[in-house]
Design a protein that fits this description.
Layout (H helix, E strand, L loop, with lengths): L2 E3 L1 H6 L2 H14 L3 E2 L6 E7 L2 E7 L6 E4 L2 H7 L11
Parallel strand pairs: 1-5
Antiparallel strand pairs: 2-3, 3-4, 4-5
């Protein structure tokens, strides 16, 4: 099983915290499993910070990500107004 650490997780968590979360995921497996999509995931709390670990169903790679990175994806997207009728 391989692991990928998202830049947001690398900036937010110490190498030790990332390692501990990955080892815990390997040991106990996912907390959440979606039978339809095959998504397998677990969350880990370090104080007020949350780390999400999910496993790519096709490759088996575990991705460690800090949820705020999803916010960053949409940060520069401006909402479009609905057309006037």
């Amino acid at each position: 099983m391989g692991v990928v650490v998202n830049p947001s997780a690398r900036e937010t968590f110490t190498p030790r915290e990332l390692t501990d979360a990955y080892k815990e995921y390997e040991k106990r497996g996912p907390q959440y499993v979606d039978a339809e999509t095959g998504l397998r995931a677990a969350t880990y709390r370090f104080g007020t910070r949350v780390l999400l670990a999910y496993e790519e169903s096709e490759t088996g790679v575990v991705v460690l990500i800090h949820p705020r990175s999803q916010k960053n994806l949409y940060e520069n997207v401006k909402p479009q107004s609905a057309p006037q009728t």
